[in-house]
Fold:
Amino acid sequence: MLCTSIFLLLTLLLPVLSTTTEKTTQTHSSHEPELQPPPVLTPQPLNITTLTANAARESIFECWSVSDLRVSTVPGIQGALVGSLAPGSALNYFNIPAKFDGGLHNAPVIQWVYFTSGLAVISLPASNGQAATIRGGANGLILAADIANVSTLGHTTVYPSKAQTVGLTIPLVGNRVPEHTVLHPGPCTKRDQDV
Structure:
């Protein structure tokens, strides 16, 4: 009798349990993102806004092409665009408060500056108000090369957003600019930097 009761109970519950399991499985799988094959990418240049100086020792902006991005074959990032930057000697993290004024200064060394978040507005005192707005993220990489021995006044940097600005600086080995091609005077445009 007990075996018959257990059998009947299992017979009644089995369809309910399997339906619940299917629903749970279906619900779980519907929340997972559907993976798509990666797009086919082609090698492209890496263009960045550069702070440098002219013959009159004034800081200027130029848009430089500094590296050719190639399609990676490295597992985990295979198919993504990668490129080599000039070697750095250190990696420094910065976290700048909201509404901060960095004042007038030269780059302390030739260095990559990568703004990961936030906003920086860099202006040039000798350029009648020319400025570059750098938003943290995908296009947040610049090269600061207006050191004191090439630029008399340097540049001004303010961080006008209501949030902090976070990033990294990477001084270049030997304090030398990387190989590059000047694309045009002035900061790079979004179109220059879209990969």
